[in-house]
Design a protein that fits this description.
With 113 residues, the chain is mostly helical. The protein has two helices and no strands.
Length: 113
């Protein structure tokens, strides 16, 4: 325990300036051409994957928008068909008969709203 406190209390001597081992040059420790090629490959692959992902997301959004518009148009057509059916038929369900059970007056095709 005493050695640990003594080691922590003393100031270490500065390390010598870093240098390469004997027989090793700076050209031997750089990534070189293969490192550049692999890095460029990964950058290109990542870029292509991102572009493809954005295209697929855009396609999904477009399909959802088209489906939403189709459902809204179908709902509007159902409402119009229901309104037209209700307007043409009286309470008894007879087309061309007013709510009081009589035929519409000449010159009038149906009930006025």
């Amino acid at each position: 325990m005493h050695h640990l406190l003594l080691a922590l209390a003393t100031t270490p001597s500065p390390l010598p300036t870093p240098s390469l081992r004997e027989g090793v040059s700076e050209d031997q420790i750089t990534p070189g051409l293969w490192g550049f090629i692999m890095t460029a490959f990964f950058v290109l692959a990542t870029t292509l994957l991102i572009v493809d992902m954005v295209r697929r997301i855009r396609r999904v959004r477009y399909r959802a928008q088209v489906e939403e518009e189709r459902l809204a148009a179908a709902a509007a057509a159902d409402v119009e068909a229901s309104d037209a059916h209700d307007g043409m038929a009286g309470p008894e369900g007879d087309a061309g008969v007013d709510g009081d059970g009589q035929a519409p007056a000449p010159g009038r095709s149906g009930p006025r709203d």
